[in-house]
Amino acid sequence: MPLLILLMLLAAGAAGAESATPSLHIGVNYGANADNLPSPTSVATFLATKTTIDRVKLFDANPTFISAFAGTPISLAVSLPNSALPALADKATGLDAARSWIRANLSPYVPATNVTLLLAGNEILLSTDTNLILSLLPAMRRLAQALKAEGLTGVRVTTPHYLGILAPSDGIPSNASFRAGYNTKLFPAMLQFHRDTGSPFMVNPYPYFSYRPETLNYALFRPNSGIYDPATKLNYTSMLDAQMDAIYTAMKKLGYGDVDIAVGEAGWPTQAEPGQIGVGVQEARDFNEGMIRVCSSGKGTPLMPNRTFETYLFSLFDENQKPGPIAERHFGLFNPDFTPVYDLGLLRDGAVQITDGALLHLASSPFRGIQYRKACICSASAALMLWCACGLGPRIKGRKQPLAGCLFGCLAKVNHVEERA
Ligand SMILES: *[C@@H]1O[C@H](CO)[C@@H](O)[C@H](O)[C@H]1NC(C)=O
Ligand SMILES: *[C@@H]1O[C@H](CO)[C@@H](O)[C@H](O)[C@H]1NC(C)=O
Ligand SMILES: *[C@@H]1O[C@H](CO)[C@@H](O)[C@H](O)[C@H]1NC(C)=O
Ligand SMILES: *[C@@H]1O[C@H](CO)[C@@H](O)[C@H](O)[C@H]1NC(C)=O
């Protein structure tokens, strides 16, 4: 009997989780600095058919990747390399250079692939190269002009910024402003460009790079005593909220509170240096769940209630060839075989109608890689009717059974269902 009750609780839990996370639309960064990843076409098919991910951001303009998304409902953000920008900024030749780049790199693939954003480099303001920094806004303007001239009117231009564009402060959002210099010389003109062209101001907020052991709960959306902003009388219990509102405050102080904000990257790694506190699968899940709630669910932030932000999770896969600290190689949401590293509710068909004999692909990570002969799948669909399944490995055959037929335990959650041919 206790087992039966446990089964019912688990089934009810699955149902509750499903209704709490309706299919949220969200983007993902697709970096491929790795030697173990599936082909771009299989990635595109997987994302389009098995997940609720509807936008993908690339760090380059690789034609194989862009064309892989042709004919899918997934829209793309495509990036120019940083090194391309100075040539586009040139007053005399920049527009022609921008048009050539677009003719070579976008025109052949659009509109078959729905490219909606063109990103001028990545985190340019982190650079120490003054010439590169000075070329950023002129290059963005030339790209927007060139897109118009080439007839690609559905593509908007922006550039992702690291959070170091904000002046150092005490973490109270109302105190935020852009760094001195940028605050007067760059951002007013750039925000005017965004307003004129209807493109979003894109930031990469990373609580991961700002947390300390004492602020871990604040960074991970876990219960914490919060930070009080006396100027707005608002209480912040998440660092991401505070970072987003800091950006908004800096924009508003310049008179551009109306410009949309997009989140180019944010994420949390599942591995880091040995002994680093606050990194793991549970931490990554907590952060990303919280971030999706803030950015995509319509909840918004204390200063931007009910707003949604075009958001790209970082990242689709672990990238085993990425240089730098261990964490850099461990931000992935999916394994190369498309099983989730942890469940974020981004998969379609979490537990849906299946016909007897359909193949169930199991998702729950505790059981990934284990050879099991029998599993009982918690189905959130048909009231407390569980799916019993028998088989080996992560793909097993399903059969609908009443609760009593599943007494050997509720072992796994369905990732997706492959109907029998
Ligand atoms: C392209 O993607 C955008 C954003 O997801 C969407 O609003 C638009 O309808 C798409 N366009 C086409 C032609 O599918
Ligand atoms: C902020 O919220 C937290 C969590 O709800 C609460 O513990 C704290 O007392 C609040 N602080 C203020 C100043 O309202
Ligand atoms: C932050 O704002 C508060 C008032 O809201 C002010 O007292 C404080 O000096 C500010 N701190 C900084 C570093 O600007
Ligand atoms: C946000 O949505 C809630 C719930 O729908 C509503 O009560 C509130 O007035 C909205 N706030 C704003 C600023 O639109």
From TrEMBL:
It comes from the Eukaryota. Its EC number is 3.2.1.39. It catalyses: Hydrolysis of (1->3)-beta-D-glucosidic linkages in (1->3)-beta-D-glucans. InterPro entries: GH, Glyco_hydro_17, Glyco_hydro_17_plant. Keywords: Disulfide bond, Glycosidase, Hydrolase, Plant defense, Signal. Pfam families: Glyco_hydro_17. One of its GO terms (molecular function) is glucan endo-1,3-beta-D-glucosidase activity. The keyword Secreted does not apply. One of its GO terms (biological process) is carbohydrate metabolic process. Residues 1-19 form the signal peptide. PANTHER family: GLUCAN ENDO-1,3-BETA-GLUCOSIDASE BG1-RELATED-RELATED. Belongs to the glycosyl hydrolase 17 family. This is glucan endo-1,3-beta-D-glucosidase.
